[in-house]
Design brief:
32% of the residues lie in helices and 10% in strands. Helix 2 (9-20) runs antiparallel to helix 3. Strand 3 (165-169) and strand 4 form a beta hairpin. It is built from five helices and four strands.
Length: 183
């Protein structure tokens, strides 16, 4: 009987009517099936419909934006206080320097400690990209590179002791950009 339910209601009724005349039990089953109504939505369609309603509801909720309180809306007529973007060194880093340079600069200004044994060694300026100075004038310090397994290519070069001149190189001494440190 379970197999017959899958072939459709009309076909099932036809099969049962033919069988009904030969078997009185079949007549009772047929009358019971005719009295029952088919559900408006099948089980699999109901699950699909519920999932779609859930998806649409989630999308609507996800993209709902709460309005900002009136005091939080900017009208373009206010200026923000200028805070140092490198508070550890109490200075502003130029835009060309990565944020990790702040930590290195703070360590330089405080005299360490430094994460690499090569930090603070004399930079020889063998390429001649920096102004000529006596040997020992320039020192190099590593600027961390996220994800790198070694010191990578970013450095801060200082001039004089204590440092008064600062340069940044992001390409391992191929080019240098000077920057100022406010104290």
């Amino acid at each position: 009987m379970g197999r017959l339910l899958y072939i459709g209601r009309r076909r099932l009724l036809h099969v049962l009517k033919v069988t009904m005349h030969a078997n009185p039990v079949a007549e009772h089953i047929t009358l019971r099936l005719i009295a029952q109504k088919e559900p408006a939505v099948s089980g699999s369609r109901l699950v699909s419909l519920l999932l779609m309603v859930l998806l649409v509801g989630t999308l609507i909720f996800w993209h709902r934006h709460t309005p900002q309180p009136p005091g939080m809306v900017a009208h373009g007529d206010m200026t923000l206080p200028t805070a140092a973007n490198c508070p550890a060194a109490n200075t502003n880093l130029p835009a060309f320097m990565p944020p990790e340079a702040c930590d290195t600069l703070a360590r330089i200004l405080h005299g360490g400690p430094f994460p690499y044994s090569q930090d603070g060694v004399v930079f020889g300026n063998y390429e001649g990209h920096l102004p000529q100075q006596p040997r020992g004038y320039y020192h190099e310090y590593t600027v961390e590179t996220p994800g790198a397994r070694n010191r990578a290519t970013r450095r801060i070069i200082t001039g004089d002791t204590p440092p008064h001149v600062f340069y940044y190189t992001g390409d391992h001494y191929q080019s240098f950009q000077p920057f100022q440190v406010s104290r």
